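Troubleshooting: if your tokenizer reports a length mismatch, compare your output against this known-good record of 223 residues.
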Amino acid sequence: MDKAGSLKNKIGEAIRKFRIMRHMSVKELADKTGIAASNLSAIENGNRSPKLDMCERISEVLKCDPVEVCGIQLSDIDEKRLLIKLLSKYAQSVTAVKTSDDQEGIDVRLPVDFLDFENRYNENKANLEAALNGLSEADPHYELDKATASDWFNYWIESYPTFDAYTRLKSVARDINFDSINITSDIISEEMKSGFWTYQNEYVLPSRKEALKAKLLDSKPFK
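Known-good structure output:
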């Protein structure tokens, strides 16, 4: 496959991934972007390259990074450059520190806007660790359950704050109807669960099977 064909496949795969993560059908994405469903299907299947303005509309609707939608894989150096730009924009201070085990690192002070993510991240990270610690290696479903727990955490990060808006609202609201917020929070929670299972069944598991198949083929001895 030539580079152009490979890039088209990467773009299509990225768009399909984020569309599934947002629990959105091709038709829904077409309606919201104004791009014909047939064109979106062709793009997802790697049969067509989207124009730049299409990528912008798609990334805006799917609430994801336009770079990822364009199928561009950043190198380690590119990621470091991007991190430096983000720190330059958002960090209020960057200080060299040493950890308790005498490892060197940096301490970054960010605006209060990031507190909500930090709280939710630590909460979900703790839930992930508790879930992993509760698994038994003797269980025949151990590897699958371990992968599912990690997939859930990664899904939360990729979809944040889509499914956390009303949870946040519930924690700070004072003069509004709590019953309606509880109901809405439950709906958001169910949407996240439904979105996750769709994402895992339609994207993660097939991708994992393909990777495993490729690995087995690569390791198969020649006769």
